[in-house]
What we know:
Blueprint: H1 2-23, E1 53-54, E2 60-64, E3 68-70, E4 73-82, E5 87-90, E6 95-99, E7 109-112, E8 134-137, E9 141-149, E10 162-168, E11 175-184, E12 191-194
Parallel strand pairs: 1-5, 7-12
Antiparallel strand pairs: 2-4, 3-4, 4-9, 5-8, 6-10, 9-12, 10-11
Amino acid sequence: xxxxxxxxxxxxxxxxxxxxxxxxxxxxxxxxxxxxxxxxxxxxxxxxxxxxxxxxxxxxxxxxxxxxxxxxxxxxxxxxxxxxxxxxxxxxxxxxxxxxxxxxxxxxxxxxxxxxxxxxxxxxxxxxxxxxxxxxxxxxxxxxxxxxxxxxxxxxxxxxxxxxxxxxxxxxxxxxxxxxxxxxxxxxxxxxxxxxxx
Length: 198
């Protein structure tokens, strides 16, 4: 009987120990790992492609064509041929200067036409249009028209004889000097009416 009690006591002790050990076990833990990914956008780039440079007077060889006259107004045209390599652009009016055969700078006033309120009236129809952008390559050509009066004005006793005309594409750029086969003599203080390049 005593052995039965001891066995029963041991059994109860074992049950209590097992039960208590289950209730006091630390709770199971779950570890969550979070990964943050940061994406940096690639830097943007802008590429600018430069267009052709502006033409200079030094890019050309030129000739003045035979002049025509009517009612005191002389009209002529000049043709410029691009002699340099590459491409360049023209947009606007030529800048002109007059010199005598000996190189003396002569009086000159240039009026760009056509402009608002100032029609051109050149013989060549293209000369009467507003300026447009021209793109020229070696061997290509452009033209402009020129008109002047050969009638004395005011106190003038003669009109200067111009044997050389310099042609620039801008006020600050290099000029092309063209020796004229037939000198021009613009009266009225060297007033020249000039078309855009066409």
